[in-house]
Amino acid sequence: MLSVTDLACVRGERRLFSDLAFDLAPGEWLHVQGENGAGKTTLLRALVGLSPPAAGEIRWRGAPIGRLGEDYRRELLYLGHHGAVKEDLTPLENLRVAAALDGRQLDERDTLATLHRFGLKGREELPVRFLSAGQKRRVLLARLVTRQATLWILDEPFTALDVKAVDMLSALIGEHLAAGGMAILTSHQTMPMANGRAVKL
Amino acid sequence: MLSVTDLACVRGERRLFSDLAFDLAPGEWLHVQGENGAGKTTLLRALVGLSPPAAGEIRWRGAPIGRLGEDYRRELLYLGHHGAVKEDLTPLENLRVAAALDGRQLDERDTLATLHRFGLKGREELPVRFLSAGQKRRVLLARLVTRQATLWILDEPFTALDVKAVDMLSALIGEHLAAGGMAILTSHQTMPMANGRAVKL
Amino acid sequence: MSALLAIVRRDLLLAMRRKSEMLTALFFFIIVVSLFPLGIGPEPVLLRKIAPGVLWVAALLATMLSLNRLFAADHADGTLEQLALSPTPLGLLVTGKIAAHWLTSGLPLVLLAPVLGVQFDLDASALGILVGALLLGTPLLSLIGAIGAALTLGVRGGGVLLSLLVLPLYVPALIFGAGAVEAHISGLGASGHLSLLAALLALAVFFAPWATTAALRVAME
Amino acid sequence: MSALLAIVRRDLLLAMRRKSEMLTALFFFIIVVSLFPLGIGPEPVLLRKIAPGVLWVAALLATMLSLNRLFAADHADGTLEQLALSPTPLGLLVTGKIAAHWLTSGLPLVLLAPVLGVQFDLDASALGILVGALLLGTPLLSLIGAIGAALTLGVRGGGVLLSLLVLPLYVPALIFGAGAVEAHISGLGASGHLSLLAALLALAVFFAPWATTAALRVAME
Amino acid sequence: MIWNSPAEFFAMGGYGLYVWGSFGACVLFMVAEPIMAARRHKQILRTLRRARIAEDLDKEAK
Amino acid sequence: MSNRLINWFKFASPQSFYPLAGKMIPWFWALTAVFGIAGLWLSFFVAPTDAVQGEGYRIIFIHVPASWMSMFIYLVMAAWAGLGLALNTRLSGMMAQALAPTGALMAFLSLWTGALWGKPMWGAWWVWDARLTSELILFFLYIGFIALQAAIDDPRRADKAGAILALVGVVNIPIIYFSVKWWNTLHQGASVSLTKSPSMAQTMLWGMLLMALAFWMYSIAVALMRVRAIILERETHTEWVKELEAVKR
Ligand code: HEM
Ligand SMILES: Nc1ncnc2c1ncn2[C@@H]1O[C@H](COP(=O)(O)OP(=O)(O)OP(=O)(O)O)[C@@H](O)[C@H]1O
Ligand SMILES: Nc1ncnc2c1ncn2[C@@H]1O[C@H](COP(=O)(O)OP(=O)(O)OP(=O)(O)O)[C@@H](O)[C@H]1O
Ligand SMILES: [Mg+2]
Ligand SMILES: [Mg+2]
């Protein structure tokens, strides 16, 4: 579904990687590996179309992502290093607003259930800025459930999470893959999920 | 040297922990554990004197830290969730400036050596904002070497670091302890260092 | 279309959460206007003469100050990236954000202006013209300002750079806006100024969201 | 003492890195001053009358806009915490930061003011008084502003709240500063106003760093 | 020739300050600007040369 | 046809433009000198004293060329910027960046010489006349462009952001000009009015034209010098830069 050929990325005057190529089929996941500064974040941003690569092509269902535009973005979910949650809103509102921007209406019950699943019980109505580092991260990750995307691109999704949350997240990714989804992850820790292919930068 | 009695912290109307007590002697280190939102960051900030606790006392060499003021801060190094590096300055300048504010002059050679030790070779002259997440973190951590403090208080020092950097940092903490230093750390990962006492929140 | 409404609603919700921010923009407007009599002296004739200019300059500055909350917060916390990656075209979302900005920062100025005008001894018909001109002019300020806000996004020292970029572009709005009231007071009739202001607004409605979107894409690269 | 120098040097270094930020604050000053004739009309007699007021209000606004870079950046990236935890007393470091702020934002305004005064047709002796008043007044603005900047630190919507807190406190500086030039022009002599300004400055030098430090401690809790 | 003496030329009929102020500033800036541009060019060339030497030294060291 | 197209793109690459610019610069300096000397000769030794303004009017010989160039350079700059945005050629952004400081200098010189002219003629360094005011705003637009580019570190991003600003500015300049004009004429006129120099003597016209040509050549020469430096700064890590004679030496 996603196929990358001859990809090269340049930051400043530094060539981070070149001639990168891989394919990703439904049910597969990819572990992007590399030491600090190897270019993992840069690669992910190129894959979602935020910063154009210096060379090479990225295709989704056979068409270049630049041409697909919205059709690609509808199937995509990217969560980066950033918080990407509004600190003034509560977790509940954050999820609702994000869904509304995708053009979907969230069911109150389901949303609450999702937040509880992510261990935010009792914090649904507290503005995000009062939450701890790990709790903020959980609010962001709750979007994995509320927005049904096919391709998940997650930059270090396990940072700041405690052991229970890590288990829960990897189970979630497992379900997603079993349902025919795809995922591309970076992480410096060993992954708690099986069967991933590795891409070394 | 550091002794804590009956400590309690409150955030909003939520009592995070109470009746916390521990002692720390030279050469010892403490692993503050707890799930997301348990109050680890809150505890560390109370220990360094940034936010006063709701109850209890924190003593350093027998005297309450509030009374000691500068004398305590001189022996202390706290690195939090935050970057705490100036994005416009280069790694080299960041270290120099931080040292100058502590009233110390850094030797050019030593500083460069420290940066190389932290894997920032070739990035000495690049403004920090261009660095990757892990590289930024390394610039911050380089202060562990350039500022010679007795008590290290580190909030999740291993986030964003790759495997090599984690090893290097734990070796560094080991050296520090062997030289009679003390350390208080939080981390959700299992610690790569031996002999730590755990405090559960 | 539902996404457009969703973003307007979201930005209004955020503005409500930080009500103090909105109110302080208003108070800034009031204070700047009130500083002038203090700096210049209390002569009523002089004050009446400078009233339209002072009110408009204060409106310009108040709008400009609220501009950097237009995209900066979304940029810093990564939600802007998420907007760019959402299935709705970015241009539409940008239009929504600009509309919300006007509702929270332009409209209150319009409503407040007559009260301040009274302090400068303007009569009722002049106040009417003032409100009309502001009603046409403040959306224009939001639209032009959005371009500047997008261009300075993530740029070090953006706040002041923004004003440097945007204030010169505000000159026509200022001239026609303040000119309308002055022309009315001097008996020349304000319709010419007002229709020029409307024409500028129409131009900006088409052009500004496009330029803003382009600038945002550049900022996120 | 060496820490005081170190912090001044650090802030100047940072300002140099963002040279554009400093220059744009200057141009903001110029542009705001130039907006007034556009809003008010080109009559030289009228313009000469409002010149001191306009220049002072613009200086106030320019200083105020540069205030939020005084502590905000250090707060956001955690370096302020580090400063508070450094062995040097925080009050000393704060004094250094205020001095650096004046050097990078107040002093350039003073140097530029005569050029702008010429645009409003002021004569040489009036320009001299203007510069003298600004020389006494701008450090005062930095000192008072620092308190406001510290109080609004980390508060949502701080930017505008800051102006709300600080502008009223600036009123005495504005009245005596603009008053000095006006008194000189109308032949009354400016020495009274200037010595009042100097007295205010002396007061602020003792009081403001202390208040700022206290406010910073609260902001970091 | 419309000038009778150099002094008259420099006086410019009483407008010397303004005329020479204008032309002087013009000449000053229009000389300074190319010099600055040339310096910028030389500066980058020097940096490039140093980088090249460093590269050569690196190679030799290996 | 296709052949010529290829040639165009060849020169649009920094690599081939760099030596070409190097070869052109001396010619433009020579032309600057020729036109400048001829123009100055005409302005100071041939053009007669003005009946109304005495010798003061001689400022016109630099004031008008500087004013013209300040406006013309903005158009050229915006054209380059637009080209870069549309075709994504690297050289365009560099040209726009190289032109901006010269344009700003011209605007500054126009303001400066105008002020020095205004003092003796109108009795004021500055009046809020339409043309003066719009020139001032043009100067601000230049400064804004330069400041924006200086504030962005990534050159590609700086180019694109600058291009958007330049294009927005081009749309706005006529609007600004006419609005300012209207603003000024609707009011009662300024108490001191602009005394246009009466029908200019033929020699004056020639002097002005020659000086304008000199300014034009100067602008090209200086912009080329600057663009050469910019090319090297941006292409530091390319092979062709490392192979330059000047670098090898
Ligand atoms: C700071 C003050 C001044 C500025 C910014 C300024 C600006 C300009 C500009 C932009 C032009 C070109 C306009 C065009 O070609 O349409 C111009 C032309 C000209 N200016 Fe000025 N000017 C200033 C002062 C003066 C003064 C004091 C005089 C004479 C007393 C003067 C006389 C002229 C003349 C004769 C022309 C050429 C005539 C023409 O092309 O229409 N200017 N000036
Ligand atoms: N202007 C520049 N000049 C030179 N190098 C640059 C420039 N900008 C970025 N870089 C380099 O590009 C790399 C960016 O890498 P990126 O952020 O993708 O790393 P990463 O693999 O995500 O690392 P981490 O694990 O630390 O998050 C870094 O090595 C950085 O030093
Ligand atoms: N105003 C408030 N009202 C109620 N609860 C609050 C308020 N402010 C903070 N909290 C709670 O206090 C806790 C803060 O914890 P802290 O940041 O110390 O957690 P932590 O142990 O460092 O977690 P992490 O591992 O995620 O970093 C969180 O559980 C948060 O929800
Ligand atoms: Mg990364
Ligand atoms: Mg924490």
Q: Can you characterise this structure?
A:
The complex is a heterohexamer, with 2 copies of chain A (201 residues), 2 copies of chain C (221 residues), 1 copy of chain E (62 residues) and 1 copy of chain F (249 residues). Chain A is 34% helix and 26% strand. The two termini of chain A are 22 Å apart. In chain A, a hairpin with a 2-residue loop joins strand 4 (55-60) and strand 5. Chain A has 8 helices and 9 strands. Chain A has 2 domains: 1-75 and 150-201, P-loop containing nucleotide triphosphate hydrolases (Rossmann fold, 3-Layer(aba) Sandwich), CATH 3.40.50; 88-148. The two termini of chain C are 27 Å apart. Chain C has one domain (2-220). Chain C is 87% helix and 0% strand. Chain C is elongated and about 55 Å long. Chain E is an all-alpha fold and 62 residues long. Chain E has a domain at 31-62. Helices cover 84% and strands 0% of the residues of chain E. Chain E has 2 helices and no strands. Chain E has helices spanning 6-11, 16-61. The longest helix of chain E is centred in the middle third of the chain and has 46 residues, at 16-61. Chain F has one domain. In chain F, 80% of the residues lie in helices and 0% in strands. The longest helix of chain F is centred in the first third of the chain and has 33 residues, at 14-46. The two termini of chain F are 40 Å apart. Chains B and D meet through helix 4 of B and helix 1 and helix 4 of D. Bound molecules: protoporphyrin IX containing FE (HEM), adenosine-5'-triphosphate (2 copies) and magnesium ion (2 copies). One adenosine-5'-triphosphate (ATP) sits between chains B (11-14, 16, 34, 36-42) and A (123, 126, 130-135, 160).
Short structural description:
The complex is a heterohexamer, with 2 copies of chain A (201 residues), 2 copies of chain C (221 residues), 1 copy of chain E (62 residues) and 1 copy of chain F (249 residues). Chain A is α/β, with parallel strands linked by helices and 201 residues long.
Query: How many independent structural domains of chain A?
Result: 2
Structural class of chain A: alpha/beta
CATH architecture descriptor of the largest domain in chain A: 3-Layer(aba) Sandwich
Unreliable residue stretches of chain C: none
CATH fold field value of the largest domain in chain A: Rossmann fold
What attributes does this structure have?
heterohexamer; A: about 200 residues; alpha/beta; Rossmann fold; 2 domains; five-stranded parallel beta sheet; four-stranded antiparallel beta sheet; 8 helices; 9 strands; about 25% strand; C: about 220 residues; mainly alpha; binds protoporphyrin IX containing FE; binds adenosine-5'-triphosphate; binds magnesium ion
